[in-house]
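Tutorial handout. Part one gives the primary structure; part two gives the three-dimensional structure as tokens.
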Amino acid sequence: MGVWQDPPVERDRRYPLAVPPALGFALILAAFLASCVSAPPPGLVHRAEDGSLAREVSRIAAKTGARLGIAALHVESGRRLAWNENESFEAASVIKIALLAEAAARIAEGTLDPVDRWRLAPRQVAAGSGILDLFQTGLEPTNADLLRLMIDISDNSAANRFIDLFGREAVNRRMEALGLPGIRLLGRIPDRDPKETEDERWAGLTLGSVTPGALAEFYRRAATGTLGDRETSRFVLEVLKGQRNVDRVPRLLLGPKENRWAGKTGLLRGVRNDSGILTTKKGRFIVVVLADRIPEKDGAGPAVNRAMGEIAKAIVDAWSADLLDVLPPPEEKPARRLAPELPRVEVSPLEARPGVPPLDRVYRPLDEKFWELWKRAGGDLRDACLIPMPNSWWEENDPWKIEPVSALILHHTAQETDGECIELFLKPASMVSSHFLVGSEGRLWQFVSLEHRAWHAGTSLLHGRRALNRTSIGVEITGNGNHHPFTRAQIDTTVRLVGVLTALFDLKAPWISGHENIAPDRKDDPGKLFPWNEVVRRGLELAEKLKKS
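Part two.
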């Protein structure tokens, strides 16, 4: 507990010590009242040099008539001020940061995919804040979309999606494992329907409990890359930067254009919370202000909002006066997890056998069926070649991203020779691959099993479906279709490939597309010289023949 002592004051020796009795009583009373107002309350922890600041904070807090919990920290210097930092407060929507942390950890572990979609049903719409309740049912936002909605505008339907998905016990275990037991998820937001009982279900709701100290430590770890691993911390921080509600703690601090806020608010009856990280040229300030027992009278809530802003500004201004400017940390690129290298093996489909490493990465039962169809379609197995490549999703690398095939995506390599593409794909650091390569003389290579998924599409969208890597077969064609026409041998091989794959997977014409169509803002292949009408028409005709034979 911090102890405040007024500094000694020298007596002005021009005046005698004796004063009239009435004036003496008035001076004593004034001094007593001043000490009652200016002395920091018990439990307000601060450094000796922050005595004036502590008195100002307590003065502002006293105006609210509410119970406040405060934790403020300057990350770079370690300077701090706290009041009731270990007392428990109703979290309200601030507890959503625990859901965000759990999601970020699962994304890092590979058990939650940020691009997975969740279909909104009427029974999944929550009461209270948000935007999802305004849309028609059937909307399918991704997990990443839902996390941003949950934080940016405090969408309750998004929050309930993650509460239901993770469960309270798992979220609380994660907080405990991070050394943050003061942050606990305790409840679930009421559903919107039935509306007749909504008020009853809100009454007495406890969504979570938090302490100011635990929240400040959460933000400190996110800011310093120690909330789990660095990648998890970065993800959490990036989502928190989208916070739209800035009328509480940062309300008076976002004037300078370099000042940025990342945080989370919360609101329930009698409760107003705000917390987060303010980044300025003086460094990073973590400010947490929690308020409960707010008087039930007009204007009490907005008054607490104003007090939060005044408290934060008092702290930031007082500390900034003594702090040097801090250079922003260099931008870090996300670490990439590389696949292990594979020995270079090249065999024809005639020589291959299913289940033999490392060929099991390129030749499995489904591939055996493909090559049987290829032969029936007039393809020469002696001229085809299998080379297993390291970069793909398979049984030991994110197998949950392998979804049923529904699309075929054609690319050009933009390289002059077949060998350049093969050498690139053999490098784990390239982070790219395709299932097939149609060589400059019409030869067909297979690199990735049709039971696995290659990394060829990147950020992509086709007919409302995103992340095409997970649901598509990728085909590279040597050359550049914007500069030179492909050879007749390449076109004939591509037609045969389209026909066989269409017959094997029952593909539909709209799902046979080019890289330029699924990523038009960044890709231009297979190029303007690629003969789409011929390839698709002849390929579909071949597929019909194969299905009937």
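Part three, for discussion. The chain has three domains: 1-87+212-328, 89-210, 359-548. Residues 169 and 185 are 8 Å apart (CA to CA).
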